[in-house]
Amino acid sequence: MTATPQDHTPESALILLVDDDPSVRFVLQQVLHYHGYQVEAVATIEEAEKIKRRLGPEAIGVVVADIHLTTNPRFHEGYTMYEHWTRLHPTLPFLLISGVVSSQRLPAVRTGAVAFLSKPFVIEEFLEILQQLLKTQNDRILRHEEIT
Predict the structure, then answer these.
(1) Where is the Response regulatory domain positioned along the sequence (predicted)?
(2) What's the average pLDDT block by block, 10 residues per block, for the chain (148 residues)?
(3) pLDDT at residue 140 in the model
(4) How far is CA 3 from CA 78, 91, 138, in A?
(5) Count: domains in the chain
(6) CB within 8 Å of 58: residues ≥ 6 apart
(7) Alpha carbon distance 129, 135 (integer Å)
(8) 66 lies in which domain range?
(9) I need a labelling partner for 94 at 20 to 30 A (CA). Which of 66, 68, 72, 126 fits?
(10) What span, in angstroms and rounded, lies between the C-alpha atoms of 45 and 132?
(11) Cβ atoms 69, 18 nearer than 8 A
């Protein structure tokens, strides 16, 4: 299945939300649905991997992942998932989120290589970043289609 720009419009864009906090998942899922996005919300990397295998990475518009998917701030499971998935699927957009201040010192966050929001964040800013990531993804798809 080849993704097309219309696959990643707000009306049909799939946001894969990975956060271990059920209340964060619930609120973000409700906000995203309200704004017309499709959402797959999961708590673990394993669940996210199952969705990616089932749908294919090209079906995912943006991955929103909490950097810390456990209560131990020394573990950066969401960041590790970002690094691994980006190696496999370099054009898959990510938005990393975290309420742990030290997360801002992670290399890709510090250099701006990945979009990042510190919790708590303003929903409007969250939605604006998602729209920017989807637009960038659509532009890549269009350029790729023009080349091929």
Answers:
(1) 14-134
(2) 41 89 97 96 97 96 95 87 97 96 94 96 97 84 59
(3) 64
(4) 25, 12, 9
(5) 1
(6) 1, 2, 3, 7
(7) 10
(8) 5-147
(9) 72
(10) 24
(11) yes
Residue type, 58: E
pTM to 2 decimals?
0.88
47, amino acid identity: E
- pLDDT score recorded for residue 112: 96
Place of tokens 């800013």: 125
49 with 18: CB under 8 angstroms?
Answer: no
Q: Which residue has the tokens 């975290």?
A: 98
**Token reading at 108:** 């890709």
- Counts for the chain of helices (H) and strands (E), in that order: 5, 5
DSSP state of 10: T
Q: Which amino acid is at 128?
A: E
The domain spanning residue 118 has which CATH number? 3.40.50.2300
